[in-house]
Design goal:
single chain; about 80 residues; four-stranded antiparallel β-sheet; about 15% helix; about 30% strand
Amino acid sequence: NIVKNGYVLISNKFAKIVAVCMDTLIADVTNIEVEIFDEVILIGKSKDKQIFICDVARWCDTIGYEIIAKLSSRIKRKYLR
């Protein structure tokens, strides 16, 4: 499913997803100061902002389990308690 109205978190700011192709994602960082290798949060929390799995599922018109199952093994994961 293509994300139509989705966002990611970069530098504690929401960046609109503008394109998704295979396991590549392009986000609009027009008003965000970014550097190469900055952390991009697809699902999770950055200071006072958070993207829940249910948000991503809603943007993709599906359920959270399907989103988790379809995440490529090439995406680096960081698990926190």
